[in-house]
Design a protein that fits this description.
elongated; single chain; two-stranded antiparallel sheet; mainly alpha
C-alpha cells in the first residue's frame, strides 16, 4: 500500500513570520536576519520546517544564505514576498486537494467499475488513446488529461458525487492549468492513466485504486518539489 500524502507543515506560516519580521524591523536588501538558531528559538518550529522554508525563500530570491556568515535579505524582496506567499498558499491548497482527491476517487473508481456500461468504458478508452498518443508525441495534453478524469467522475453514475466534484472544480482545475508556474506538469503520472484504464476494463477495483494512488502520489511529488 502506498504511503498517505503528507502536507508540508508550517511552511507558509514561517514565510509569513519572516515577512512580518523584515517589515517590522525595516530590514532592507543586504541586511542580516537572525541566525537559524535564533529563528528556531523565536518561532518554536522544527529545524526541518525552517530549512524547507529557507530553501523556498532562497530559490524565489527573497533571501541569500551564506554558509558560515548568515542569512541576508536579497534585492527585490519587497515586490517578491507577496508573490511568494501566494505561491506557498497555492502549493498548500493543491496538496490539500490531493488528499480530497484520494478519498473521493477511491470510491468513485469502485462505482465506475460496477456501474459504467460497455459503451461508456469504450468512450473512456477513446479518450485514453488520444491522451497517450499526445504524451508519446510530446504534445501538450492537459485538456485531454482533464477530460479523462472528469469522464471517470461522470461514469460513477452518482449525481451527488459528481456535483460535489463540480462544486470544487475551481480548485480541481488548477491541476490542469500549469500550477505554480510549472512548464509541463505531472509527466511522470501520465503513463499510469493507461494502466488505470486497463484496470477499469478488467473490473479490478483494488488494482484500479492502487494505480490511481500511485498516479496521485506522482503528482504530489511534482508539487512537493516546486520552489
Amino acid at each position: 500500500m502506498t504511503d498517505k500524502i503528507k502536507r508540508i507543515p508550517l511552511q507558509s506560516e514561517i514565510i509569513r513570520y519572516l515577512q512580518e519580521y523584515i517589515e517590522e524591523n525595516h530590514l532592507k536588501a543586504g541586511d542580516r536576519l537572525p541566525s537559524q538558531e535564533q529563528l528556531l528559538r523565536m518561532m518554536g518550529v522544527s529545524r526541518t520546517s525552517l530549512r524547507e522554508a529557507m530553501k523556498t525563500l532562497e530559490a524565489r530570491g527573497i533571501i541569500r544564505v551564506h554558509n558560515g556568515k548568515g542569512v541576508y535579505v536579497s534585492e527585490g524582496e519587497d515586490s517578491a514576498m507577496p508573490t511568494l506567499l501566494d505561491f506557498a498558499r497555492e502549493k498548500e491548497k493543491l496538496l490539500d486537494m490531493l488528499e480530497v482527491r484520494k478519498v473521493l476517487e477511491r470510491e468513485i473508481l469502485r462505482m465506475v467499475i460496477h456501474r459504467a456500461t460497455p459503451e461508456e468504458i469504450e468512450e473512456l478508452g477513446g479518450i485514453t488513446a488520444v491522451l497517450m498518443e499526445k504524451f508519446r508525441r510530446g504534445e501538450q495534453q492537459t485538456a485531454v488529461d482533464k477530460k479523462f478524469h472528469y469522464t471517470i467522475y461522470r461514469l460513477s453514475h452518482n449525481q451527488v458525487m459528481y456535483q460535489m466534484i463540480l462544486s470544487i472544480s475551481s480548485i480541481m482545475d488548477r491541476f490542469w492549468e500549469f500550477p505554480l508556474d510549472m512548464e509541463d506538469p505531472f509527466l511522470a503520472s501520465l503513463p499510469l492513466h493507461e494502466k488505470l484504464y486497463q484496470a477499469i476494463c478488467e473490473k479490478d477495483v483494488r488494482k484500479a485504486q492502487a494505480i490511481n494512488e500511485r498516479l496521485l502520489d506522482a503528482i504530489y511529488q511534482d508539487i512537493r518539489n516546486q520552489r
